[in-house]
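> forwarded from #structure-qc
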């Protein structure tokens, strides 16, 4: 079977450590990691394989000063796409980002600089977002004469709410710092987003993979269901996860008082 390290990637770089933590790097810094069609195909390929390759958690980071400048506007200009062409481009973005969100493997995004347009769509497909002081979020589609096509209407509005997303798109409003945390664009604001993302990935990787699979796919799936169906699906998933062999030792440790208690340090 092809391993992650064998994949022919150019715009992404991948490194797996001994604990199964996979670092995925956006590797097109000269173009501010703008997402061209080739990069999207690499994301589809990588995140199709990753859940079956023993990955315990992923850190998604970027080379250069900016996480991602969104859609490759120059490629889009030169390709002179028809409406049908661009619809298919968007469907590949959805394929990539759905593979990420529904992967079952925790993805922690280490953000810096611009996280804009499609870059924010990419970041919002991760399960946890960590920002630093340089990080800023925007949806400049309106100013470029465009509209979101990579899932922002679903994922970004889910993070910040419809009214804030519309304001960002209409007015070019930029969020950063504590305000970005407060509105839900990121969950952590730290000095070193990569170090923190790695720390969070290592913490998540301590959980049994089946628990992480449920956390990083079932919650997203259940949000797409009616409350009645989601409750049913939750019971079924909990039936499988909460009776897994990996849980038994942890429950025994709690019962015999050797497990850590849930208390603030
Ligand atoms: C790019 C792109 C890009 C940079 N497509 N090539 N996204 C945007 O509207 C954001 C556009 N980018 C920027 O506003 C700025 O580039 C940044 C604030 C991110 C960085 O500024 P800076 O001064 O560091 O870099 P730069 O000089 O603007 O760009 C450096 C190079 O990266 C330059 O290429 P070069 O060959 O002339 O050196 C730029 O052309 C290139 N570059 N950003 C293509 N986005 C599915 S629908 C999603 C719709 C959207 O994502 S809309 C949002 C688009």
């Amino acid at each position: 079977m092809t391993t992650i390290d064998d994949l022919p990637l150019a715009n992404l770089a991948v490194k797996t450590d001994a604990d199964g933590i996979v670092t995925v790097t956006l590797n097109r810094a000269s173009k501010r990691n703008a997402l061209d069609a080739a990069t999207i195909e690499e994301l589809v390929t990588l995140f199709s394989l990753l859940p079956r390759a023993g990955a315990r958690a992923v850190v998604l980071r970027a080379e250069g000063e900016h996480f991602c400048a969104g859609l490759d506007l120059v490629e889009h200009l030169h390709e002179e796409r028809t409406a049908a062409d661009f619809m298919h481009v968007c469907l590949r973005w959805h394929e990539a980002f759905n593979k990420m969100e529904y992967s079952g493997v925790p993805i922690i995004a280490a953000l810096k600089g611009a996280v804009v347009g499609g870059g924010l769509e990419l970041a919002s497909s991760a399960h946890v977002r960590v920002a630093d002081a340089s990080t800023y979020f925007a949806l400049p589609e309106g100013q470029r004469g465009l509209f979101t096509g990579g899932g922002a209407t679903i994922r970004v509005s889910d993070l910040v709410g419809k009214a804030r997303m519309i304001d960002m798109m209409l007015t070019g409003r930029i969020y950063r710092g504590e305000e970005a945390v407060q509105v839900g664009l990121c969950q952590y604001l730290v000095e070193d987003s990569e170090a923190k993302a790695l720390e969070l990935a290592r913490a998540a990787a301590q959980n049994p993979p089946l628990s992480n699979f449920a956390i990083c796919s079932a919650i997203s799936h259940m949000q797409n269901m009616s409350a009645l169906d989601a409750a049913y699906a939750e019971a079924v998933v909990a039936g499988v996860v909460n009776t897994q062999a990996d849980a038994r030792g942890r429950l025994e440790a709690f019962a015999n008082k050797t497990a850590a208690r849930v208390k603030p340090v």
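QC bot note: Residues 31-32, 34, 66, 69-74, 90, 93, 114, 116-118, 140-141, 144, 146, 148-150 surround 1HE (CB under 6 Å). The chain has two domains: 4-205, 209-255.
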